[in-house]
User: Which sequence fits this backbone?
């Protein structure tokens, strides 16, 4: 067990996040479980993102489960913006990508893969404010909410069990954005 002052060993592959990551907002629509908000905060912090917006969600600030699951991301949780309307959540955003795991009717364009969405966010965020929107744990985003987004995206997954936990989905998208932003890893030793 580590002593309180003892530092962790240096991670093998870490690079600083680009300054334009400040243009990316992760929006959680009506999350029901504080632990999922905490886990999402940890995921975005791990990948260098900072802006978490919670639209009509559960109470998570100061919640023990959120703090525990957000291990190391207390600052993200404390700074997270809690809003009551879609307009507040997306204010100032140039482009939004709504995430879904359900097959949608023909009225929606074919969704981007999470990798394509990560690239799109990385490209746009260099000059514009961009939002990634995640839906409710049980039912995702509604058709009305998805229509408010500029594009849709889905994580390719196995047919036997295609559903992800909210924070797992956030981590995948945050990772894909981070990967798309890399101009080069440090040389191998």
Assistant:
């Amino acid at each position: 067990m580590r002593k309180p002052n003892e530092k962790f060993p240096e991670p093998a592959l870490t690079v600083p996040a680009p300054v334009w990551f400040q243009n990316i907002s992760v929006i959680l629509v009506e999350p029901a479980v504080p632990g999922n908000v905490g886990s999402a905060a940890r995921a975005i912090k791990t990948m260098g993102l900072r802006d978490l917006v919670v639209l009509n969600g559960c109470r998570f600030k100061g919640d023990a489960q959120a703090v525990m699951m957000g291990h190391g991301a207390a600052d993200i949780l404390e700074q997270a913006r809690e809003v009551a309307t879609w307009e507040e959540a997306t204010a100032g955003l140039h482009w939004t990508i709504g995430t879904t795991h359900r097959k949608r009717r023909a009225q929606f364009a074919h969704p981007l893969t999470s990798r394509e969405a990560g690239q799109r966010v990385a490209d746009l965020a260099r000059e514009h404010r961009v939002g990634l929107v995640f839906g409710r744990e049980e039912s995702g985003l509604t058709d009305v909410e998805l229509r408010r987004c500029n594009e849709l995206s889905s994580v390719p997954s196995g047919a036997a069990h295609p559903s992800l936990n909210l924070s797992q989905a956030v981590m995948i998208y945050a990772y894909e954005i981070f990967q798309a932003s890399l101009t080069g890893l440090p040389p191998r030793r």
About this structure: The longest strand covers residues 24-29. Helices lie at 34-46, 64-69, 74-79, 86-90, 114-125, 143-147, 166-181. The two ends are 29 Å apart (CA to CA). The chain has a mean pLDDT of 90.
